[in-house]
Amino acid sequence: MTLVEALLVIMILTASMVAAPSVGHLFSSRTTVRQDSDLIVRSLRLARETAVSRNCAVTVRWKNVKDDEGEYRMVIDMLAAPGIYSDGTDAFGAQANPGSSTWMVDPIALHPDVNVKANASSIQFTPTGTASRDLQMKVSRDSESVEVIVQASSGNIYKDAS
Fold this sequence. Notes:
The strands form 2 sheets. This protein has a 4-stranded antiparallel beta sheet with strand order 3-2-1-5, with helices on one face. Strands 4-6-7-8 form a 4-stranded antiparallel beta sheet, with helices on one face. It starts with a helix and ends with a strand. 30% of the residues lie in helices and 30% in strands. The longest helix is centred in the first third of the chain and has 26 residues, at 3-28. The protein has helices spanning 3-28, 33-54, and strands spanning 57-66, 72-81, 108-109, 115-118, 122-125, 135-141, 144-150, 157-161. It is α+β, with helices and mostly antiparallel strands and 162 residues long. The protein folds into 2 domains: 1-29; 31-161, minor pseudopilin epsh fold, CATH 3.55.40.10.
């Protein structure tokens, strides 16, 4: 290895050490209410698609929990109960008896400053892709808010920014 190559390797390693923390921070933090509302929409769509593909009922709930730092934050929690005609596994492949159910071990946490108000505390998606109820959820942070809507009869999930 020549001196030029060695210096080039040192420069690349130095640049990567400086850049790594900022890149990690970029992916780990959500900065806007739109990002949190996108996460909610993706979670609801995942629940609906899981219900259809695995022929089971999937319930999604949202609740405030205290995190490790003692802050309360909103989390999204899902439960997928295997159907009576399932192959003995739950929606994600783990062995389960028909009718048994457990909530997620690590629920999906939203930003601590996000406030969620909804006309229900949970919603269930059926194997046909329809929802148990119409849902209107307002996701807000500071002065910005986004409304997430689920239509029961069609199972459509979308958001409306205000």
